[in-house]
Design brief:
alpha/beta
Length: 508
């Protein structure tokens, strides 16, 4: 096995499979200095301003002269004088291909009365505003299996009672985009298949008035959706007592479910990557993409997101757009982000993070090209705005920030009933009421943090597995997790603090 990886014959870089010492030979070129694992090595001399390619795509421009065998990173590679704004060939629909032959697989799901299928069975306590968050948490804490194990003993089919609170809901334009997004997010969670029932707790005087939200979202109270406020109830203690009583009333019906065989077409995966490294685009991300291709062939759906982290790779998605308007909508969202970052005195290359750079990623272009691999190779069927309900089947795109908790919150609001999360640095993450599985990009992380990881895709780097074989293993893990097998993040109790709706606009 070579100590380096070449991804494409036309690439200007090789990727170190392990730490390389000066003098080591790569393709007959002596390495100059120390090259950390996952980092890039120049295959030939480059002059300032010359584009540098990985995956046969531009990942940046030489900011100074680069010699063969040199380490390529932030000291000699950047986004260029136009900060990555170079011409891309969107070629809408050029790579669209026939739909895959339909395959059939099943998992043990929970069928709801309206035909939706759940992978988990929770009761949720949502707060309309930050002011009611403490009361919402106190209600859910009463039903904690860790602190009060007897309270749910008679309800074994209920996975738990979780409080999903947030830091907004007031001090915002009552007709603005920020409130629209918050209400859309809360609606997605209030109607999510993984919730058997939902309790909404408000304060009473907030911008996000519960009655207005229910009306705007075409929701109404009933046996599985109850809402009230602290001010109308008479204070915090009475609110907590009322909430506990309401959930006790909900528990018998929530418990009256059973798992039964369901088509894999009912699975919708939210695709996430966080704490990425130089191996993400080689191992876990393409392996997850292979699993997505399998899921789509079985009639299921996958949501690719994180718009700031596909920047520079969007042309690879527009080529797969099932219809021109789908590709054009994706570019509209890219343009929105360029404007949004500009008016906030930022730029799209605020990514990668320090951890990403330590792992070998230099620019957002490089990170994005690896990130889009999570979406596999099938056609792009639709583009959604943040937290919109996903109706299309197959691979779709949802516009979200790159920050993982915010992004995944939007995906779950859109209907994702499972999250697949790749990481090379060791992100700590979970997502109630949707289970999240963690995929390690390298074996060193797996050995160090195995109790947080569900599968080691680093075997691809080690040469003991392939992208296709690992994709099959991920698909099987998805079916098992959707059937009720607990992921590592669920065993650790992650999920409640990771509910983070996207806050857009001024805090008033």
């Amino acid at each position: 096995m070579t100590p380096f990886i070449r991804l494409h014959p036309s690439d200007d870089v090789l990727i170190a499979r392990q730490q390389l010492l000066g003098g080591t030979s790569v393709e007959g070129i002596p390495v100059k200095g120390l090259i950390p694992a996952g980092h890039k090595i120049a295959t030939h001399a480059m002059v300032p301003g010359e584009p540098v390619r990985r995956y046969n795509q531009i990942i940046g421009f030489a900011s100074q002269a680069i010699a063969p065998g040199e380490h390529i990173h932030t000291h000699n590679l950047d986004m260029g004088p136009n900060k990555g704004d170079f011409e891309r060939d969107y070629a809408f629909g050029a790579d669209v291909k026939p739909e895959p032959a339909r395959r059939e697989a099943t998992f043990m799901g929970i069928k709801r009365a309206d035909g939706r299928v759940a992978t988990r069975n929770y009761i949720g306590v949502l707060s309309s505003v930050n002011c009611s968050a403490t009361a919402a948490r106190a209600i859910a804490d009463h039903f904690s299996r860790q602190n009060n194990p007897a309270v749910l003993a008679a309800f074994p089919n209920v996975d738990g009672v979780v409080a999903l609170t947030h830091g907004t809901g007031c001090g915002m334009d009552s007709g603005g985009l920020g409130l629209q997004i918050l209400q859309r997010t809360l609606t997605g969670y209030a109607t999510h298949a993984n919730f058997a029932a939902v309790l909404v707790v408000g304060l009473g005087c907030e911008s996000n008035q519960i009655n207005a939200w229910l009306a705007n979202s075409s929701l109404r109270e009933g046996d599985t959706l109850r809402a009230f406020s602290i001010q109308d109830t008479g204070g915090t203690a009475k609110t907590v007592a009322k909430g506990i009583a309401l959930i006790k009333d909900m528990l018998p019906q929530a418990n009256a479910v059973k798992r039964e065989p369901c088509s894999a077409a009912h699975i919708t995966i939210g695709l996430q990557c966080g704490g990425s490294d130089g191996y993400s685009g080689i191992s876990a991300n393409p392996a997850l993409g292979a699993a997505v291709d399998l899921l789509v062939a079985h009639g299921g759906s996958a949501i690719l997101s994180e718009t700031p982290e596909i920047y520079g790779a969007e042309h690879l998605l527009t080529r797969r757009a099932a219809r021109r308007e789908v590709g054009e909508k994706l570019i509209e969202r890219i343009k929105w982000w360029e404007h949004y970052t500009q008016i906030n005195d930022g730029e799209m290359n605020n990514n990668p993070s320090p951890g990403n750079k330590a792992g070998g990623l230099t620019t957002i272009l490089e990170k994005s090209l690896g990130a889009v691999a999570k979406g596999g190779t099938t056609n792009l069927q639709a583009v959604y705005e943040y937290a919109q309900a996903v109706k299309a089947h197959g691979l779709v795109y949802m516009d979200t920030p790159g920050y993982d908790p915010v992004s995944a919150t939007g995906q779950v609001a859109g209907g994702a009933n499972l999250i697949c999360f790749t990481t090379g640095r060791g992100s700590a993450y979970g997502c109630a009421p949707t289970p999240a599985v963690k995929l390690s990009t390298n074996s060193a992380l797996w050995r160090k943090q195995e109790d947080d990881m569900d599968l080691n895709c680093g075997e691809i780097i080690d040469g003991s597995s392939t992208v296709a074989a690992m994709g099959q293993r991920i698909f099987e893990l998805v079916l098992a997790t959707a059937s009720g097998a607990k992921s590592k993040s669920e065993l650790h109790g992650y999920g409640q603090n990771e509910f983070v709706p996207w806050q857009v606009g001024a805090v008033m």
